[in-house]
């Protein structure tokens, strides 16, 4: 797929963390239309259609949104779809009770198996989206319902060293 100079310049204005996604989306649109060259106008349309939701939005009422994510136990995820975490967040209960309406969940992922194999990799992916706080899910903390995670303190330290605050718990 060829790109006009103007389209290449426009692509450079797309934030780095969604640039690859924008490139793929516009090339797919242009290809589906049976054309072989991307123009700046194509990029503008594809960006609006596929990417703009993921870009930084203007602050509402001067409030900077707090961006949170939840990591949960890979093993427990076999039997838990995560409903309680989302319900508790929506109702601002338990470990979510202090968040205002501007707070967003921008990630929900499993640890990847002991000893938290993919946590730092996914936190790294979320940082360009301004992740503020990572919650370790309640399933990692509870002694009775599920086996407590033996790596939770180590996971916490690693994430905090990446500049992201950690809260130990979600719904109870
Ligand atoms: S590291 Fe902890 S949370 Fe992840 S699978 Fe092992 S016990 Fe579960």
UniProtKB/TrEMBL annotation:
Gene3D superfamilies: Proto-chlorophyllide reductase 57 kD subunit B (1.10.8.550). GO terms for biological process: chlorophyll biosynthetic process; photosynthesis. GO terms for molecular function: oxidoreductase activity. InterPro entries: CGGC_dom, LI-POR_suB-like_C, P-CP_red_C. Residues 67-171 form the CGGC domain. Transmembrane segments: none annotated. Pfam families: CGGC, PCP_red. This is CGGC domain-containing protein. It comes from Syntrophomonas wolfei subsp. wolfei (strain DSM 2245B / Goettingen).
């Amino acid at each position: 797929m060829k790109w006009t100079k103007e389209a290449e310049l426009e692509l450079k204005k797309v934030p780095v963390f969604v640039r690859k996604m924008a490139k793929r989306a516009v090339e797919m649109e242009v290809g589906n239309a049976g054309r072989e060259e991307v123009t700046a106008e194509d990029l503008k349309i594809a960006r609006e259609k596929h990417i703009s939701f993921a870009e930084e939005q203007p602050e509402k009422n001067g409030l900077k949104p707090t961006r949170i994510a939840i990591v949960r136990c890979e093993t427990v995820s076999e039997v838990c779809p995560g409903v309680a975490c989302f319900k508790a967040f929506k109702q601002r209960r338990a470990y979510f009770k202090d968040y205002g309406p501007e707070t967003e969940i921008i990630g929900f992922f499993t640890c990847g198996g002991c000893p938290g194999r993919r946590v730092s990799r996914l936190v790294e992916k979320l940082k360009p989206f301004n992740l503020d706080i990572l919650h370790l899910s309640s399933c990692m903390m509870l002694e009775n319902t599920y086996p407590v995670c033996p790596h939770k303190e180590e996971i916490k330290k690693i994430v905090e060293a990446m500049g992201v605050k950690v809260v130990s718990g979600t719904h109870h």
